[in-house]
Amino acid sequence: MSTRVDERGDERPELFGLTPAEVAERVRLGQTNAVKETSSRAYRSIIRGNIFTRFNAILGALFVVVLLSGSPRDALFGMVLLANTLIGIVQEVRAKWTLDRLSLINETMARVVRGGESREIPHEQIVLGDVLELESGNQIAADGVTLFSSGLEIDESLLTGESAPVVKRPGDEVLSGSFVVSGTGFFRADKVGADAYARKLASDARRFQLVQSELRDGINVLLRGITWLMLPAGILLLSSQLKAYGTFSASVPGTAAGLVGMVPEGLVFLISVVFAVSVINLGRRNVLVQELPAVECLARVDVICLDKTGTLTDDNLTFSALEPLDEGLKDSDALSKILGAFGSDPNSKSGTLDAIARSFGAPEELEITGGVPFSSTRKWSSLCLGGAGTWVLGAPEILFESAGADESLKARVNGIAGKGVRVLLLARAGSDLEGETLPERLEPAALLLFEEHVRSDARKTLEYFTEQDVAIKVISGDNPVTVAAVARRACVPACGEPVDARALPEDTQELAAIMEERTVFGRVTPAQKEAMVASLQSRGHVVAMTGDGVNDVLALKKANIGIAMGSGSPASRAVAQLVLLDGRFETLPEVVAEGRRVIGNIERVAKLFLVKTVYATLLSIAIGLAGWAFIFLPRHLTLVGGLTIGAPAFILSFAPNKTRYRPGFIKRVLRFSIPVGVVMALAAFAAALSHIYPWIGQNESRTTATLVLVILGLWVLSALSRPWTWWKQGMIAALATGFVVILIVPWFRDFFALAPPRLTIILQTAAISAAAIALMQLTWSFAGWRRGRARRNTAP
């Protein structure tokens, strides 16, 4: 293999890579980096997930049994089940289309050498044996062996947990899932696709998921409990129906009615649909949701950690001034040539070096013979420039430790930084650097000043988070004084004195105490960002982290929710749960609002569904113990559920809802549903008792019980719909009108096996409903009194 000397004096191999014929052969053999997982659920998975569920199996079996028993009208619940399933599939397919479209925009590219030419291709098109080029910010997409390294440092912490970057030399192994923090290099892909060590890391970060959600986990706990209740209740109810009717076919409708009522069949469907619609809504705002529960999680966030660069400020960092400190350099162009060399160094990547490159051209007469590439951990880089000597460019506070700067220079730097200007120090080294250690003495040569522009949307967004009681922490690798000045310009509340992260303790609890008290932190290393997030989590906080650079990857991964900018590094986008594709910081409040809508509405509709489960379960047990015929037919409970739960729950699940997140989802749902369900069960049971009178037939008692449940269901719906709006009142009025139409139109009334509303039925219904409503109001008042007393007892 032939070699050439690159700009830094390193021997770089002349790499040819694979030929087109070799690439085609590997593609034919399936030796590519493509895997079956996509950025969203497969169609087969969506269909299977919506059809093959626990309750679909139960209701499907009951549907078949009811049909076989000769009661097709009582199988109406099967049509509702089918409609729910179809709507769920359609909405999740729409979400898949949205995710796939946005994933194409967010697609990570790799640079490969093929046929002696360098080109960019998607990660999925890498084949076995490809030669790939690496630079700072790249996430490695396959396993392989290093062919060339020029200061190449790899962070493998996402795989190994070790935070220290690993220097890679020719012959060293590189692993997929790790990322480049500094330097450049080439490696050969020896393991691709499913064979790669951490291929699952990249695919999991982009997969459409419906798991690991507090709401979903809470609902699953409730559903498991309901499933276990159904078995004994079903056996008890079937035995009572056999006793009442004598034949199995006659016992089926009553048994099915009780069991169908116990199943909250629309709840799981609604959760899936609500999440899917959230993905679609956010997709319209150019927000890529890479992990679905992120929408819900962001609504629970109470601390948001912001990386200054790229979040509070935009990407337009500009070089503004050069202040020579060496009298011999003031009137020469030597500084411009030296800075031009730093800006053109291919192995060092950062926003400040890019700004330098735009202001100073690459010098032809200066030869780079070595150096140390920039990394956010070191916060400096160096170049050996042949006869011009060795130069170091980096954070003044870091270089001052070796530069022996006087107090006036330090004061000068702090004064500039206090205006929100970023400052770098250029210093001359008296000798060549040994490894990555600064020499004992550096000679300050010049200060470089850079202007940062605060995002126009930063102030409004920060005000929103402050109003929502979300604590803001500004974390940056820059000078603490500069960070504080920028934070004040962006109107970050309670900035206070900035903290220099070099003095922070390593102990998690000590660090957490400081994080709770202070707002602005500077000179933070990538490992410290991760530790800061962990310390806040140790205090029970739900933490969001925003970032766009490779130095933010560890913290983005550690946070409860990581938010990356679309213009950020591939590594940061790969590990984040949310990607703001257009980089608009002002989109975050909309994401929070979407999450709160999801949480608030799911809690509201969960109460509706579980009220029905409670009263249906209690009625099944009570009637089973009494040995009576079940008062309802399946079509009655389908009617009650459709008018008071199904249709309004579907509408309410998409309504605006600004309710703030509160822990205790399951407790609140059960605390509401159980007493209300008990009251409704008592009311329905009271209506059922009327059939003991010889002048009241079974059909009339069923009609009375159905009327009572509809009235009470609409009353509960009105309570859960507060605050009332015109459309909510209109919805409830329309539902009530619909039931009246069913009751007075003979065809509908006969279809649902209801009796004409005689005076006896009306009076019984009014009396039972009034008593039940009064009892409900009493329980709600008592619950409110208990909550108020608890708040007073816990108040300081």
Cα end-to-end separation: 75 Å
Looking at this structure, what is the CATH superfamily of the largest domain?
A: Calcium-transporting ATPase, transmembrane domain
Shape: elongated
Average pLDDT figure: 83
Q: Identify low-pLDDT runs.
A: 1-5, 200-212
Report the sheet with the most strands, covering strand number, pairing sense and barrel closure: 8 strands, mixed
What percentage of residues falls in helices of 4 or more residues? 40-55%
Q: What is the correct CATH architecture of the largest domain?
A: Up-down Bundle
By DSSP, the count of extended strands is 23
Content-based structural category: alpha+beta
CATH fold category name of the largest domain? Calcium-transporting ATPase, transmembrane domain
Looking across the biggest beta sheet, what order are the strands in? 10-23-22-21-11-18-20-19
Instruction: Kindly provide the name of the CATH class of the largest domain.
Output: Mainly Alpha
Rg over CA atoms: 34 Å
Taken as a percent bin, the fraction of beta residues is 15-25%
Q: Can you count the helices?
A: 28
Total domain modules: 4
Transmembrane segments: 51-69, 75-93, 221-239, 259-282, 609-631, 637-655, 676-696, 702-720, 732-749, 761-783
Domain P-type ATPase A: 107-204
Membrane topology: Multi-pass membrane protein
Keywords: Membrane, Translocase, Transmembrane, Transmembrane helix
